Amino acid sequence: MSDDLPGPGRPADRDGGGGSSGEGPAPASGGRSGPGSHPAPGSGSGHGPEHGAGRPDGAEPTVKLPTLDPGEPGPNSSSGAVQYAPGPGEPGAVHAGRFWSGRRVPAALTAAVCTGLAGLFLYDIAAVRTDRDAMAWRKTLADELATRHLDDVWIIVGAAVAAALGLWLLLLAVTPGERGVLPMARRGAGGVRAGLDRHAAELVLRDRAMEVAGVRWSRVKVGRRKITARATSHFRELDDVRRDLSAALDAAAAQLGLAKALGMRVHVQRSDKKA
């Protein structure tokens, strides 16, 4: 009886339990071999002339699945790597402005300096109100302001420094900052507002430039209004390399999904033979 029962090391187990060993016909596909048992892959299921017949190596056949062309994203695609025109019922792209910086460092420095000066003046005034002598630095400052004329050199220098600091603070207040973040396009008023790191965009464009035939070295700088690419070529005509490089960078820049189209400037020169 031990020869009739399959063991863990018998050939029937290694073949998936569906091979015939000459002991008798294999059970039908609708039959049960035991409680809770399931037909093994490749076993007799009516799909072949012989139960257990499949590929010689026992592997599953390869099935080709439908794929989506990267250049033609569907309407339900959430990827922003490829731009496509909005559909009939889809809102168009809205204006996406630059991100505003918090200006934490200048604000913290200005607040610290103003708080320190205000605290010194308040302490000195409170000390004078309690019949104590004023601090020496405040007496000297009051005497200097009372005796020096407006055309004095130190008065002019101090006024110039104060005006420069004031203009710097005003410039920080009216400019957005965040020059390292490029705003990305969004669709609809409730669309997600996203930004792309400038250095990451430069890396993507540089990698795309290195894929052009004939390019040996490349460097890409992404600005607020234009993209500047420099490359060297060690074979092919420079005009052909420049044309292919411009086309590749234009396509890559369009796939970044930026809110504003950037200009393109490409410089290609012959690489040094010694390099």
TrEMBL record:
<keyword id="KW-1133">Transmembrane helix</keyword>
<feature type="compositionally biased region" description="Low complexity">
    <location>
        <begin position="23"/>
        <end position="42"/>
    </location>
</feature>
<keyword id="KW-0472">Membrane</keyword>
<feature type="transmembrane region" description="Helical">
    <location>
        <begin position="105"/>
        <end position="123"/>
    </location>
</feature>
<feature type="domain" description="DUF6286">
    <location>
        <begin position="164"/>
        <end position="269"/>
    </location>
</feature>
<feature type="region of interest" description="Disordered">
    <location>
        <begin position="1"/>
        <end position="89"/>
    </location>
</feature>
<dbReference type="InterPro" id="IPR046253">
    <property type="entry name" value="DUF6286"/>
</dbReference>
<dbReference type="Pfam" id="PF19803">
    <property type="entry name" value="DUF6286"/>
</dbReference>
<feature type="transmembrane region" description="Helical">
    <location>
        <begin position="153"/>
        <end position="174"/>
    </location>
</feature>
<protein>
    <submittedName>
        <fullName>Putative membrane protein</fullName>
    </submittedName>
</protein>
<keyword id="KW-0812">Transmembrane</keyword>
<feature type="compositionally biased region" description="Basic and acidic residues">
    <location>
        <begin position="48"/>
        <end position="58"/>
    </location>
</feature>
